Amino acid sequence: MSRSTHYFTGSRDGKRPPSGDPLRKAKDHYDVVVVGSGLAGLTAANILGRAGHSVCVLEQHYNFGGLATWFKRRGGHVFDISLHGFPIGMQKTCRKYWGTSISDRIVQLEGVRFDNPQFQFDTTFTREDFTHKLVDVFGCNPATVESFYETLRAMNYYDDDGRTTAELFEEFFPGRNDVHRLLMEPISYANGSTLEDPAITYGIVFSNFMSKGVYTFTGGTDLLIREMRAILARNGVDVFGRSQVDEITVEHGRVRGVRVGTREIRAETVISNAGLKATIERLVAPDHFDNAWLDAAKQTRLNCSSTQVYMGLGPGEDLPWITDLLFTSTRPEFDSASLADMHGQS
Fold first, then answer.
1. What's the Cα-to-Cα distance from 21 to each of 24, 89, 239, 249, 299, rounded to whole Å?
2. How many CB atoms are closer than 10 A to CB 201?
3. How far apart are CA 186 and CA 105, in angstroms?
4. In sequence order, what are the residues at sequence separation of 6 or more whose Cβ sits closer than 8 angstroms to the Cβ of residue 164?
5. Is residue 326 part of a domain?
6. 14 is a domain residue
7. What is the pLDDT of residues 112-154, one digit of tens each?
């Protein structure tokens, strides 16, 4: 490589070319090919491999895990950039689809702290503690709080009543921007949602997290993905990195397989974990889909607010423990849209 040639990790157009054939051990045909090694793709592959199907996972990056990943720097430093908070239901999900070697490492965060101009306190992020905060700290009517919870619990994806999250909040806590901040700020940080989004999307997410608190995986995402790859190997799933799928091939209205560079791998089924719009527009091509379905897909707004700040500590240095999860902002009043403004006051 010449001195003038540079490759930038993470840039789709700047990846270092593979030194060998990353698919040299891949078969020409599988029952299922999974595009993308995010947690959804790896889980689908594991379920199908465990059921006896021949499965292949193709990942464009050198690392696996999608957004649940990490990177290393000189000196043995590991920067973990995975999503670190999820509801208690993840224990049951991982036990069902992956086993106890993963589910037993999911534990509750001991401390969650809010620090902003409107309020400052610690919470366990459980229903009991949220009730205490809403009633005793914010002065809300206990019956109103319980009615709010029941409304959230009754929501499902099939009965969207058209309300926005802002309208939902105003119905139960009118004019209470501080309460809106408590209820919405963690969700805005987690997935980029705003008060103008459908109330149904907020209700389901908040109900899941509010139940028993916030949980995380202990040991680091590198350990999580390493254990998942070992389980996949035991279930006969082939996993290949540095293998960018250029096309999901279609013949006579049915999937035929995938193309990676000049090589095609045939499959009866292809599962794409590469994102809805990228799958439609880049991997398959819109003309293979029904127009009505395409119109509905175009209305989908993809949420992702994974903003990371990395700090490196020198040997022997330490930081005092403040809390496990900190929600902090400097804006005098809450405005969910401002959280997505890279140049404004959060």
1. 5, 40, 14, 21, 39
2. 18
3. 23
4. 195, 196, 197, 198, 199
5. yes
6. no
7. 999 999 999 999 989 999 999 999 999 999 999 999 999 998 8
Closest alpha carbon to 27 in 250, 249, 236: 236
From start to end of the chain, where are the E strands?
29-35, 55-58, 70-73, 77-80, 106-108, 112-115, 120-123, 215-217, 238-240, 247-251, 254-260, 263-272, 325-328
Count Cβ atoms within 10 A of the Cβ of residue 183 and give its class: 0-12 exposed, 13-18 middle, 19 or more buried: buried
Q: Does 121 lie in the same domain as 201?
A: yes
189 and 157 both lie in a single domain: yes
Neighbouring C-beta atoms of residue 306, cutoff 10 Å:
12
pTM of structure: 0.85
Residue with tokens 């790859």: 229
| CB contact at 8 A, 215 and 230 | no
**How is residue 327 written in tokens?**
């929600």
Helix (H, G, I), strand (E, B) or coil at 212: strand
CA distance between the termini of the chain: 43
Residue 35 has pLDDT above 90, yes or no: yes
Q: Where is 83: in which H helix or E strand?
A: none
Domain contains 17: no
Q: Is residue 62 part of a domain?
A: yes
Angle (CA) 75-13-77 rounded to 5° is: 10
Give the structural domain span for 237. 29-80+220-298
Q: Is the dihedral of CA 115, 189, 179, 335 positive or negative?
A: positive
